[in-house]
Amino acid sequence: MILKGKIWKFGDNIDTDAIIPARYLNTSDPAELARHCMEDADPAFMTRMTPGDIIVGGENFGCGSSREHAPIAIKAAGISCVVAKSFARIFYRNAFNMGLPIFESRDLVDAIAEAARITLDSTQGSITVEGQDRKFSISPIPPFMEQLIADGGLMKHIAGK
Amino acid sequence: MGYTITEKILMAHTDSKDIAPGRLINARVDIALGNDITAPIAIREFRAAGGKKVFDRDRVALVLDHFTPNKDINSAQQCKTVREFAVEHGITHFYEGGQVGVEHALLPEKGIVLPGDLVIGADSHTCTYGALGAFATGVGSTDLAAVLLTGELWFKVPESIKFVIYGKPQKWVSGKDLILNIIGRIGVDGALYSAMEFTGETIRTLPMADRLSMANMAIEAGAKNGIFPPDEITEEYVKPRAKRPYTFYTSDPDAVYAQTFEIDASQLELQVAFPHLPSNVRAISRTGDVKIDQSLIGSCTNGRIEDLRVAAGILKGRKAAPHVRLIVVPATPFIYRQALQEGLLETFMDAGAVISPPSCGACLGGHLGILAEGEKSVATTNRNFVGRMGHPKSEVYLAGPAVAAASAVLGRIASPEEL
Ligand code: SF4
Hints:
The structure holds 2 protein chains of 2 kinds. Chain A has 8 helices and 7 strands; from the N terminus they run E-H-H-H-E-H-E-H-E-H-E-E-E-H-H. A 7-stranded mixed beta sheet of chain A has the order 4-3-2-1-5-6-7. In chain A, strand 5 and strand 6 form a beta hairpin. Chain B has 14 helices and 18 strands. Chain B starts with a helix and ends in a 9-residue tail after the last helix. Classes of the chains: A alpha/beta, B alpha/beta. Chains A and B meet through helix 4, helix 5 and helix 8 of A and helix 2, helix 3 and helix 5 of B.
């Protein structure tokens, strides 16, 4: 898949309380959750972002609770994918299980400035930044995870078996 | 080459011949847990996939603990969804109303989770049950839906990190201080994707309540699971509670570890994690003058009877400082009743405390103790992220019950030795 978009840069250890605060967990409605996406990390995020944009995080993105509301909020907000140095493991599972594309790329995160525009090619395993010649690599996705995404998430994968 | 306890439990639950860190396996699940926040999504997914019957109604636990007693219409609707599902499928372990306790205190207490089990829960602190010598890990709602349907789930076999703890802890120092200290050393992603295995002479005599607090916070170091080798203390805890057979697994002497840490517990002071990360840990002597507005004693980390006894021992004959709201949350109805019978609740009330019903409540900024802008709370909970207990500009300081009780009295973060 090829994804193009403007990036929004966040730091290390962006936790699920920052992605979707617990005060909004009395619903699982994606549209409602999307309204508060990233609210405690950047209160103006939803008014400034446009669908198709990409979130870039540092180490351990999505740490904290198991709430699937976090990847749901990001997906429903229209974010096309998340790139980070590393992901917390439950967030990693959840993203694949529900079909939110996420990619690990160490070099890119340090080299990229806020508001840059990137093109991510998951088949090639590369990211290019508009105005830069350098190509950044993304860690390959394990074959099983690729299968999950191809099947449309865990439940469809199971149903297919 | 030998196997770790984590590898052995996973092996016992899969048909894959080939267990090694990094391998993906499909494993049978003994107990699957959901709560009023995560189960509604799992139920939606289960139904969307055409689910008609759960894999085993005795092996599913549904606990309505987060926003209950229902805090608003939306949370009432979520509870209703789960209740109707529980009734429709005849779920044996369904808890709400006067039966409900904080899930990770309730399941071990009721003997629902046992040594050698493979447990998944759509709640990150499911890792708590590793205290019993079980493999227990937090997953998302879709994972829970998959297990409800099939009784199985995919796992990546984790590497193990060994923590060898020796030395006699000083007075007041508890399992909470040990785990905070460890998270402070290795960081919030220090055990990412890994199993944290706790051993050593200090662990062999460590009470179950302390083990539960420690395993509870393994996720705060990014771990997949935290685990204790089962022993006589485990047997004593589990035996009167278990209603089905259980198995003790232990690591082979030649098991392979990615890393080993040795920690001298005798050198440890009481610990406090400053905002906004559980790894931002300081010894109590280095906390400085931090005025507090609230002290919260409770949660799946430290809401057990042993924690309430420590707090009550310190609060007896004393009062919370006038500007401090002291909130005590017994984690389960059984603990609540014990605290009542032992006179602890009276001690808390005399100290000026509010006693909350068993609930997650303020721990996750849900209800029953939310912080306003600029307010600070010391809490015996497990997370102090931005906005965790209320306003994004409020602050949470994590500590054990001894520090939470002493701080309530002095109105600032303090050691009981200062009283
Ligand atoms: S007490 Fe807090 S940490 Fe524990 S399950 Fe409830 S919300 Fe989660």
